[in-house]
């Protein structure tokens, strides 16, 4: 359970909430993977898989989201660089298997 901050009375409460948040993040990454796999089905070239302009747009949007939520954009960018690289490799692999 993610306990509201005002009800975190000790370190155990805080750590338990952090663990719940981390689990949800991992759960969402797993869900994202399924969508990436589905997207790969619709792509007909490696250029579509690479999607340079899409990646640029994603970074801009995620940076805006980070700023609006008062979190460092560089942190978000670093996280998404790793995520995008991983899923690009997955999509490339799926694309080659389909060809």
Short description:
With 99 residues, the protein is mostly helical.
Describe this structure in words.
By secondary structure, this protein is mainly α. The protein has one domain: Chorismate mutase (Chorismate Mutase Domain, subunit A, Up-down Bundle). Helix content is 80%, strand content 0%. The chain is built from four helices and no strands. It is elongated and about 55 Å long. The mean pLDDT is 95.
Question: Which terms summarize this structure?
Answer:
Chorismate Mutase Domain, subunit A; mainly alpha; 99 residues; 80% helix; 0% strand; elongated
DSSP helix fraction:
over 70%
Number of helices: 4
Helix/strand class: mainly alpha
Oligomeric nature of the chains: single chain
Number of strand segments: 0
Distance between the termini: 45 Å
Radius of gyration: 17 Å
Number of domains: 1
Assign the CATH class: Mainly Alpha
Chart the SSEs and their pairings.
Layout: H1 11-41, H2 46-50, H3 52-68, H4 73-98
């Amino acid at each position: 359970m993610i306990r509201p901050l005002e009800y975190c009375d000790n370190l155990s409460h805080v750590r338990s909430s952090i663990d719940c948040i981390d689990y949800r993040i991992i759960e969402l990454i797993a869900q994202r993977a399924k969508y990436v796999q589905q997207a790969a089905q619709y792509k007909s070239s490696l250029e579509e898989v690479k999607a340079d302009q899409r990646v640029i747009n994603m970074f801009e949007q995620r940076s805006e989201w980070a700023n609006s939520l008062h979190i460092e954009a560089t942190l978000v960018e670093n996280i998404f660089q790793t995520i995008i690289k991983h899923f690009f490799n997955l999509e490339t692999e799926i694309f080659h298997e389909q060809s």
